[in-house]
Specification:
- The complex is a heterodimer of chains A (about 200) and B (about 400).
- Chain A has about 200 residues and is of the alpha+beta class.
- Helices cover about 30% and strands about 25% of the residues of chain A.
- Chain A has a 6-stranded antiparallel barrel with strand order 1-2-5-4-3-7.
- Chain B is an alpha+beta fold and about 400 residues long.
- In chain B, about 45% of the residues lie in helices and about 20% in strands.
- Chain B contains 14 helices and 11 strands.
- In chain B, helix 5 links the parallel strand 7 and strand 8.
- The radius of gyration of chain B is 24 Å and the shape is globular.
- The two termini of chain B are about 15 Å apart.
- Classes of the chains: A alpha+beta (about 200), B alpha+beta (about 400).
């Protein structure tokens, strides 16, 4: 397992958790599998990143435009961060993940863990091997597709695409995953066809 | 309704009306005073002596010019890399009606480095003061409570001490560096204080300035929209009929010959004007005006080698006042550095030095923090089985009783 932590849990519940990234603007991509450590050694919670946001650390605070300086000088993109090193201290990148399972001493379970990851515990981004291992079963598809208030179809499609890339038999995985989704969305043809277009093999 | 807005709005309208009425008069007088000021440039040496002669006997605050009165300097190019430290503080004063006798000082600390290895470190450091030595200053017989103005004085001293500590922690290499504070470097609040209180706080403050001097890190403070009338005080001397340099006589406001003759004093043309009104016209964006010495009593008598100098700097629609000790003001290279770095900070902060804005953000104690602090004290006292009771007055203010 990858040992470099990328973020820290700052909000946590049974079904989802939010992590603050240690580096500004650096977060795992949408649909990525992340792992949050728990108080039990060997037990970690898996989540799928469904939202990434960057804003003021201050509640209610907002960033201001900085591309045109007071004297009329134009600054672009990364130049602005270089010119204002304090931004890294006052802005924060956060991401939220929906909980899709957990791992105990190497054994993966695709249902909710007994406890959510504690606030301030470490979050790691899973590497390709871990993603391939986790996505061997498709039981988490249902939890994602029927979750509320998240872009569930987009999220699952992104995860399936990433999981396909994490293995050599990408096409076979996409076909297999497409069948699983078809069985879950059999009552909704429009939604299913839109979904399948999102994971169509290239 | 606690604040009767209907009644208030009438008074606000009257105020606006009165301001409109006086604005025109102010404009005419400002132009006249400015013209007089410009006319006297070149005669700085003379006015320096007059200021010194009048220091004790003038009723007005004065500023002694160090450079020609018409001086305008554009901001030198900012070095490609520099570092700076800044602090700002806030406090929760002793609450006589609260549960425990204590006060809190929160110091916002900022370190920023620009250039190839750009980085920033923003922190805050709260300190709770509750012991006898913290709450009172004593000289053996007298005992003075540290609250109100004296607490502000302690905060000022703590800001300085924190700034010196930050400089020691972060400013080590050869990079151009600056230490920045908000407000004034002249500790006015101590001017009327008892001798031993002044001694105590000013001693700490001057010790910090001396530390920075030895490390050769320029210290400045920045005042946005200053209302100081010190240069105007010096212009008053230009109008004064009693000033006679040859006879070694400065202005003596107690014996004003105009008043004795039943006239309005000649200097009343300056009434209500501040330095920035006079200097605004001669400074364009980024330019600084001449350097002056602030002639306030505490500065002249107590600051010694750290005697506070200042100049005005044009930043957008306002003139800001930048203060520095003598060892900075007398070093032309340091003055240029201060000028360029302070202006660069203003550009980065869109009109106000970004380091000070960040220090303020770190230091600020919001009303919600204040309430949380009170609750923390209450519950801690209760756990320790100590009485945690508010005064009747505090309780009666909690809500309106029917």
């Amino acid at each position: 397992m990858e040992r470099t932590r990328i973020a820290e849990v700052i909000e946590s519940s049974t079904t989802r958790f939010t992590a603050g990234a240690y580096e500004l603007l650096v977060a795992p991509p949408f649909g990525a599998l992340v792992r949050a450590q728990t108080r039990v050694e060997g037990l970690a919670v898996y989540g799928l990143v469904y939202e990434i946001r960057t804003g003021s650390k201050e509640p209610g605070g907002r960033a201001v435009v900085r591309g045109r300086t007071y004297t009329g000088r134009e600054l672009y993109d990364a130049e602005i961060y270089h010119e204002h090193p304090d931004l890294a201290e006052v802005l924060q990148t956060e991401f939220s993940a929906i909980t899709v399972g957990f791992v105990v001493n190497g054994q993966v379970y695709q249902y909710l863990p007994p406890h959510p990851p504690p606030v301030h515990y470490s979050v790691y981004q899973c590497d390709q091997d871990e993603l391939a291992r986790f996505s061997m079963a498709c039981d988490f598809f249902r939890a994602v597709l029927f979750a509320h208030q998240i872009p569930s179809d987009e999220l699952l499609a992104a995860t399936i695409r990433a999981a396909a890339q994490a293995r050599t038999d990408s096409r076979a995985y996409l076909v297999h995953a497409g069948r699983e989704v078809a069985s879950l969305l059999k009552d909704d043809y429009d939604r299913l066809s839109a979904f399948l277009r999102r994971i169509r093999p290239l | 309704m606690p604040l009767n807005l209907t009644t208030l709005s009438q008074q606000v309208r009257q105020m606006s009306g009165a301001l409109v009425h006086s604005a025109e008069d102010m404009m005419v007088r400002t132009a006249q005073v400015r013209e007089r000021y410009v006319r006297e440039s070149g005669a700085e040496a003379q006015w320096m002596r007059v200021v010194d002669l009048s220091r004790e006997t003038s009723a007005w605050l004065l500023a002694r010019p160090v450079e020609p009165l018409h001086t305008t300097r554009i901001a030198p190019a900012c070095p490609p890399a520099y570092a700076l430290v800044a602090t700002d503080g806030s406090q929760i004063d002793v609450d006589r009606h609260g549960t425990a006798y204590c006060y809190l000082i929160n110091i916002g600390r900022v370190y920023m480095r620009y250039g190839p290895q750009a980085t920033a470190c923003l922190t805050s450091q709260p300190a709770l003061y509750y012991q006898e030595d913290d709450l009172y200053l004593t000289d053996g017989t007298r005992r003075v409570a540290i609250e109100g103005n004296y607490l502000s004085a302690r905060r000022d001293a703590e800001e300085g001490i924190a700034l010196a500590a930050l400089a020691d922690e972060f400013l080590h290499d050869d990079l151009p560096a600056l230490a920045m504070q908000d407000g004034t470097l002249v500790r006015w609040t101590l001017s009327g204080a008892e001798q031993f209180v002044q001694e105590h706080f000013l001693g700490q403050y001057l010790f910090y300035l001396e530390h920075m001097r030895q490390r050769n890190i320029p210290v400045v403070s920045y005042i946005s929209r200053p209302r100081a009338p010190e240069v105007v005080g010096t212009i008053r001397l230009m109008y004064c009929p009693d000033v006679d340099l040859k006879a070694g006589r400065g202005a003596r406001c107690n014996e004003c010959s105009d008043v004795q003759a039943g006239r309005a004093p000649s200097c009343s043309i300056c009434q209500g004007l501040v330095d920035t009104d006079v200097l605004a016209a001669q400074l364009t964006e980024g330019q600084r005006g001449p350097i002056f010495v602030s002639m306030s009593r505490i500065n002249v008598e107590r600051y010694g080698p750290h005697l506070i100098h200042f100049f005005y700097l044009r930043v957008g629609r306002e003139l800001a006042r930048v203060e520095m000790p003598r060892w900075v003001a007398q070093d032309a290279a340091q003055v240029d550095l201060v000028h360029s770095l302070v202006y660069d900070q203003c550009i980065k902060g869109q009109g106000y030095p970004v380091a000070l804005a960040r220090a303020h953000e770190q230091a600020i104690v919001r009303s919600s923090d204040r309430r949380a602090f009170q609750r923390m004290i209450e519950s801690s006292l209760q756990r320790a089985e100590l009485p945690a009771v508010f005064s009747h007055k505090h309780e009666s203010k909690e809500f309106m009783r029917g």
